Amino acid sequence: MSNKLQIGNMSEADTYLFNTGSHFQSYQLMGCQFAVDGRGKEGFSFRVWAPNARGIAIVGDFCDWDAGMKLRKIGETGIWEGFSTDAEPGQHYKVLVEDANGHRKLKMDPYALAFETRPKDAAVVTKLPDFKWSDGRWMAKRKRKSVYQAPLNIYEVHAGSWRKPKDGRDAEFYTFSELAETLIPYVAEMGFTHIEFMPLMEHPLDASWGYQITGYYALSARYGSLEDFMGFVDACHAANIGVIMDWVPGHFCRNDNALSYFDGTPQFEYWKSFQADNVRWGTLNFDLSKAEVHSFLISNALFWIEMCHLDGLRVDAVSAMIYLDYDDGYWEANEDGGNVNKAGVAFVQKLNTEVFKRYPDMLMIAEESTAYPGVTMPVDTNGLGFNYKWNMGWMNDILKFFEMDPLFRKDHFNLVTFSFMYMFKENYILALSHDEVVHGKKSMMHKMPGDRYNQFAGIRTLEAFLMTHPGKKLNFMGNETGQFLEWKFAEELEWTDLEQDLNHQYQFFVRTLNEIYVEHRALFELDHDRQEWRFWMRIIGMSRC
Fold first, then answer.
1. Nearest to 470, CA basis, from 513, 416, 528, 387
2. What's this model's pTM, rounded to 2 decimal places?
3. Is residue 227 among the annotated active site residues?
4. How many CA atoms lie within 13 A of 127 on its CB side?
5. What distance in Å separates the CA atoms of residue 399 and residue 386, rounded to the nearest whole number?
6. Cα torsion angle, 15, 17, 21, 26, sign
7. Annotated catalytic residue, options 367, 426, 463, 527
8. 375-424 pLDDT tens trace
9. CA–CA separation, 348 vs 370, rounded Å?
10. Among residues 99, 121, 269, 316, which one is catalytic?
11. Is 328 annotated as catalytic?
């Protein structure tokens, strides 16, 4: 792919595809792009979608911060564009939006590839990196191997709190170049097959953990540059480790300087305020019925997959996208009198169709917390089209059982066995995730009853059961060391715990368990083979599986 684009090179075909929700590489044209004009002069083009704005200008270091460079509107497409020969990489800019009433407001570029470190919020002029990948062997192996019959043991990581810099620098976070030197060897030594990062896109509030995004196309400046992250993924692949990233297409940060009411009207969000407002999370919901939002979001998924060679996306809050009544507060039924958001379902199906059309070996993982049927079934059978789903039912039941005093467990073994009744209805990942070790829920270790000896015995049993139950595996960072305190996003993990014999021995136990899992095909090849497992269930008297 060439990064050199001529101004005006967004053709009628491009604008038509964008406006009909079918332009899935819009990141190559929209936002700030290195370009060459018709006279051969190099510079940067700027394109912004703002259909109801009266005027759009780019203000920044290379033009007047007050009036800026005015963009022209491309017909009735809602897209504005301009070109600057003065813009240079590293300079800062914002979008000045004049709404239909003449009010002017500074906004972040929705397609910007980089931003200043928060609390600053200007976009940074930059080129799409021309990274030299060296992971051809990994990518070829990924195409040859079925994800369903391969081991999948995920280490979930919050990049900002796995470790914190302690070398006297002012930096709050390690960059991905630095994390490559520590995180990758650790994950390889522990025997995990994949790393899953909580969202890495630009976001203003650390306490949101990355789930309230302002810059969908930009790696958060906390963690370095997009090229740093590409290098990290390349190094992971060289170490035989896959990389998955959490992605949030359902809702976005409602901060006034970002996507929120971008052109002065509900643009990215629903027109009806009760649909737009996400009460539970204090965010705004994407209007999943709008064609241009489809072009924006599906392009974004493919951007991270294509540009960063990701092995999968874990799609956050799918339930909130497919149900009209999932949030707190007022809602209206659909035309059939039901609670299914048909636009949300259609978007999810379209997303998965487009991803798998290009990358059939991709992991598309749903965080979906209800019993909605067919989440991991193909779209052509009316499924949502994911290939994996977190098993939230198993997680809730098994943690309830293990938190129980052992004196009472004999009357509650149904919590352990109930998952056998439905474990083949979807392709499941058994997730002991970050959501289970925050907000007063206690760490995995702290959930276990009894003294320290019995707590370690309990968590060893839990991990062993996780590894032998059908389904792929996920553990959040800190679970593998027996951390006692809850996860804190502003602090690093309690690595000093490993100075204690019981913690050190438990970490060795998890590492050994991970190695056994990968080495023994019986633990992963038949995760989704209903017929084979039905035979064994009959033997132990559970023929209803």
1. 528
2. 0.93
3. no
4. 16
5. 26
6. negative
7. 367
8. 999 999 999 999 999 999 999 999 999 999 999 999 999 999 999 889 99
9. 16
10. 316
11. no
